[in-house]
Design goal:
The protein is built from 4 helices and no strands. The chain is mainly α. It has one domain.
């Protein structure tokens, strides 16, 4: 039981880190436009807001998936369609 919980936590953490790289780039690009004396508050505020949004959306999403069991396969199908669209757009001449 403990091993499966720890495995799930590690997988979620790894996925989160991989998906948050775009947030880091967006926050740092915005922070690079402000004066150097204001960069730290802008970076800290951006990271804090991103973490708050991630927590909020995760709680909302998990509640919705628990409540509406049909939502998980529908959301998975949408993600697959988005993946195909991204691949199609990337390889299209």
């Amino acid at each position: 039981m403990l091993r499966s919980v720890l495995t799930a936590i590690v997988l979620i953490a790894f996925t989160d880190v991989a998906l948050q790289l775009d947030n880091a780039i967006a926050i740092s690009s915005v922070a690079s436009t402000v004066p150097a004396s204001q960069r730290l508050p802008v970076l800290a505020g951006g990271v804090l807001l991103a973490a708050l949004c991630l927590l909020s959306f995760t709680l909302i999403g998990s509640t919705l998936v628990d409540r509406f069991h049909w939502l998980k396969p529908v959301a998975g199908g949408v993600l697959v369609l988005i993946g195909f669209k991204l691949g199609y757009d990337f390889f299209r001449p």
